[in-house]
Amino acid sequence: MCKSLCSTPKDPDSVDLGWGLEISILNGCSRLMPIICGPHLQKHRCNWWRGTLHWVGYGAVYLLEGFQEEVILAWLCIEGPENPLVLYPTVMNSLPATSRMQKISVLLFLAWVGFLFYAGIALFTSGFLLTRLELTNHSSCQEPPGPGSLPWGSQGKPGACWMASRFSRVVLVLIDALRFDFAQPQRSHGPGEPPVSLPFLGKLDYLQTILEIQPHHARLYQSKADPPTTTMQRLKALTTGSLPTFIDAGSNFASYAIVEDNLIKQLASAGRRVVFMGDDTWKDLFPGVFSQAFFFPSFNVRDLHTVDNGILEHLYPTMDSSEWDMLIAHFLGVDHCGHKHGPHHPEMAKKLSQMDQVIQGLVERLENDTLLVVIGDHGMTMTGDHGGDSELEISAALFLYSPTALFPSALPQEPEIVPQINLVPTLALLLGLPIPFGNIGEVMVELFSVVEDPQPHSSALAQASALHLNAQQVSRFLHTYSAAAQDLQIKELHRLQNLFSKASADYQRLLQSPQGAEAALQTVITELQQFLRGVRAMCIESWARFSLSFLLLHLLAAGISITTPGPFTVPWQAVSAWALMATQTFYSTGHQPVFPAIHWHAAFVGFPEGHGSSTWLPALLVGANTFASHLLFAVGCPLLLLWPFLCESQGPRKRWQPLGSEAESRVRPEEEEEPLMEMRLRDAPHHFNAALLQLGLKYLFVLGIQILACALAASILRRHLMVWKVFAPKFIFEAVGFIVSSVGLFLGIALVMRVDGAVSSWFRQLVLAQQR
Length: 772
Known about the structure:
It is a single chain. The protein is α/β, with parallel strands linked by helices and 772 residues long. It is 42% helix and 13% strand. It has 20 helices and 20 strands. The protein has helices spanning 95-128, 205-213, 231-240, 263-269, 281-285, 306-321, 333-340, 346-365, 391-394, 423-430, 456-484, 490-512, 518-543, 552-558, 572-588, 616-626, 628-635, 643-646, 685-716, 723-771; strands at 14-16, 22-24, 35-37, 46-48, 51-55, 60-64, 71-78, 85-91, 131-133, 169-175, 218-224, 247-249, 274-279, 292-296, 326-331, 370-375, 395-401, 417-419, 653-657, 668-673. It has an 8-stranded mixed beta sheet, sandwiched between helices. Strands 3-8-7-6-5-4 form a 6-stranded antiparallel beta sheet. A two-stranded antiparallel ribbon has the order 1-2.
């Protein structure tokens, strides 16, 4: 019944068994002797009078007495009426090489799974955690933004910088989450229809009154904010003129302070007095800059009145004191009302009415040399949230008013739409300050018209001068930034620089003969505006393209099957507990998933005198201190493979021995033996490799669930008030921790495999020595 391997050859022959194994028949089939052992052989080890038999899954290894090689019992068949197990021994030469290939396959598969996770993290990060390089260069009056003479009218004026100041002081009222339609009156959809009645419409009546009575003194704009529409990022944009992202790669990871050039620092450098009152976020962004400050806690979004009432207590007395050059009041009631009730709640109407009274009181106290700016940093959704890039979130109101005539033209039919960062270069030149170095906003040219001069040529020249200064500053920034980073589009950058060179040459030529060149000035103005708008579009494409990428690769990796057969299995609760212990150790050692909580002092452990100019060594020390728990638990994870053996009963076990001719049908217990425990790893080396793969996939799966949960939380809560302060940093720490853990796991499994190979070689030599 049993098929022979070969037909009685005289010399050793070879047979392909199909598993990629080529075996040699020992001294020909005529010398093969069947070994009879009961069916329990598959689960136990039995002794035979000529050697020891080990079951290894794809065959059996038979260690022959006096023989120096491993022998595989690869041919199995059933004979006789009582179905004894018959195994024919043949020499196995490729078993060690096969074991090595299995180990390499396990490592390569784990590396591939890790790559899928990395790709998913990178895909999500590229759309959510916007990044750019942060420059610390500062503009100054002593360094013009480019070659050429200063604009006409600025030479010889007291306190003049790049351009003569038009206002001595400014009042900046920041109403958090002042959506553009909050400043709109109630309107009907068609003639004869009643006006639409919404709680937030028509509550800023005083704005509409000023616009109708004094159209040359006031303007209402629809200000477009760049996502992310969170307060901290919007404050950075409103003071630096750039596109702040979540990660402004620079030197300020230890705090939230703005180190880029900004309006507040320019005012302080010029000796101007800046007084602030309101949201205490400004305290972290501009530490020690304000000449006087009244900070109020902003965390409690259910509190609609504490911050606003605190501001009102100090606002009017401060204005009357005249001990200020810039007064900033940051109201939070509208934003908190949106978070608590939504924009359609009656409480929103009350808050907007209160803000309307505040604006009226400020207008009545303004002097001729003071500019009033009322702006919302962002809008809000229909549910009162913000943080994303929907139309309602990026649309904010911007209102400008001056006691003196400011605008030569009549009020437009519809408010003009302007990017929010355009306010930064506009205020800088109106106040006679240098434009912040990293600004990419465009001056609002309408504010630089010469109202008292009826000749359109004068206004056009003034607008062209302001735009040219603005363009020179932006061109200088691009040149500096592109030399330090490579994330801008080279082709587009060259096109824009060529456009600026042409516009600048045309402007300089017109300065030589300004009379009668109004059409040429309008052409220059258009070219400069095209350059500035092209730069902003390029930077948005490179830095702030806000998109939520679906984690397809991440989910694919998380869904990989991790069920493998074999006798060695680490239970899920053990793997989960091991991963949770790594997280618990992270917190118990004093770490938190926020940047200010990083233990920066770890960079100097062992190096009290510093590291000189080296940066990689302190970075390595800080990283090792922060993610030590992730690394240690990941490297030690393969030791969990001993879990089933440690859980084995410590009592005696029965060992079975065949009894002569009756061994074909029955067995009896002979003696007691101690549990084999981890020595069972020697019985099934390929199962051991499979168990390592299974354990590694389980650990990666648990870690992947954690990082996936953080990514989903950051995505779902991207409009939450604390998304960039809590959820996004948590995601970054989890992502870095996952990378560190996966690398540590790979190294730990490779180390265990290396040790297993050495132990297997020693064990084989030991058994062979005992058989002799």
